[in-house]
Design goal:
The structure is a homodimer of 237-residue chains.
Chain A: H1 9-22, E1 31-32, H2 35-41, H3 46-58, E2 62-65, E3 69-72, E4 78-84, H4 87-93, E5 98-109, H5 112-118, E6 125-135, E7 138-148, H6 165-172, E8 177-186, H7 189-195, E9 202-212, E10 215-225, E11 231-236
Antiparallel strand pairs in A: 1-3, 2-3, 5-6, 6-7, 7-10, 8-9, 9-10
Chain A binds a DNA duplex (19 and 19 nucleotides) through helix 3.
DNA sequence: GAGTGGTCTAGACCACTTT
DNA sequence: AAGTGGTCTAGACCACTCA
């Protein structure tokens, strides 16, 4: 038969295998037919079968080993795509009014606090910014931002009263590595006042470090009132 | 010639292109040579070049359009990999002792609470479990779990005093879609007592729904004391 | 040793989009 | 109309690993 369904052959092979896994016909650890067998089943070349299986493997659905064959991946950790967007985009995507305010700006040699954030990587001047992002005129995110001026000298002259530093940095600076820590923390006195929440209220905090090669570029601490913000991720297989 | 560096040809092509992007030689929006040109540059077949470019496109590094060519992807949102693991694996990976305890188990028709969690998808019996996961004998995660027994009848007979429901479900049940919401919430009275924290303390809460086709399988609310738990993600390009 | 996946080739035809 | 990427083939040889 080979009722030519929609799309290319490799996609049809992927769909058929995924359907068998989803329906439980092939469960965790089950061995999938070899490339040669599938070549006969789908009446196509081995390269086409190989591409389908290779993509499923790169998506974590199956695990392949020479001689041992292809098996449905045993359950372990799963990788979930978590999309991180600029704060202004995040808010306007939700259909809210967005407003940004620069609360404080200070430039000077790296003090102990900055060195702690940067993990001892900064010796020269550091720019520290404190910003508030509003959604519908309510505080949505408090952004504390440290920028390593050794790595990004042009940030010293940038005007951050209109453009949030996150947006400016994404446009201006290439980066090679990033790290992000998501946690729940009680609001300290200063944070509570700026975010207009009770002292000790639950905040969702994202701390993000960004490097260019070995040099740290920036550290951001983004705090959100727990009552108004969450991260949502979806996945399917 | 073709100074055979390490690894297969397609990987070398990917590395070379990524290096040019990282070093800023090809910046956002820059057009990359066509497959035919790269075929000559790297002295290999077009399929090999195609594979390298296709993988870079699937990783979001480049964007490809027929006739228009291949370009370095313009900056937009970023995708971050967030790894989600079973709680027992999470704790033992950190080098801590793991202990699990079933606090409560109740079976009955879906009440208003369960229908709210399931988004009105459940009509029949529901199994509700409350579990505690300890790391080094300190409460690490409070798991409140609802299982739709219409979708998973065998869960009604499973023994959850030894095996955590998350582990059991991952092994027993295929799934097709999942949704996850990460938030910061204050500890309610019952949660505070079980987790041994102050009333109103900041909790990092993960709520996860899992479906098989259209039917909801399970809803889990996983609460962690903010002081002992965080999610960490890293990425590089 | 034999069977598995991993890579690669030198062609081919098609689909799409810009000119 | 021409040039780009998208897919596919029918082979080939290699690398790994289990029996």
């Amino acid at each position: 038969m080979s009722g030519r369904q929609a799309g290319p052959t490799y996609a049809r092979i992927k769909r058929d295998i995924l359907a068998k896994i989803r329906q439980g016909e092939w469960c965790d650890g089950h061995r999938i037919p070899s490339e040669m067998e599938l070549t006969r089943t789908f009446d196509c070349s081995r390269m086409t079968v190989h591409r389908a299986l290779r993509e499923l493997a790169s998506e974590g659905v199956v695990t392949r080993r020479r001689r041992a064959g292809t098996r449905v991946t045993l359950e372990g950790g799963r990788n979930v795509l978590l999309e991180i967007a600029r704060t202004d985009k995040l808010i306007t995507d939700l259909g809210h009014d967005y407003r940004y305010e620069l609360v404080a700006r200070a430039r000077g040699p790296a003090d102990a606090e900055a060195r702690a954030k940067f993990g001892s990587g900064a010796q020269g001047d550091v720019l520290k910014l404190v910003c508030l992002h509003y959604a519908n005129e309510k505080p949505f995110q408090l952004e504390e931002r440290w920028i390593n001026l050794e790595a990004v000298p042009s940030a010293g002259d940038a005007d951050f009263t209109k453009t949030p530093p996150g947006t400016w940095l994404l446009r201006a600076i290439p980066w090679s590595d990033a790290e992000q820590i998501i946690s729940a923390q009680p609001a300290a006195a200063g944070e509570a006042k700026l975010l207009d929440v009770e002292l000790g209220a639950a905040l969702l905090v994202i701390e993000r470090r960004t490097w260019l090669d070995r040099a740290i570029v920036t550290f951001a601490r983004l705090s959100h009132p727990g009552s108004v913000y969450h991260l949502k991720t979806t996945l399917s297989r």
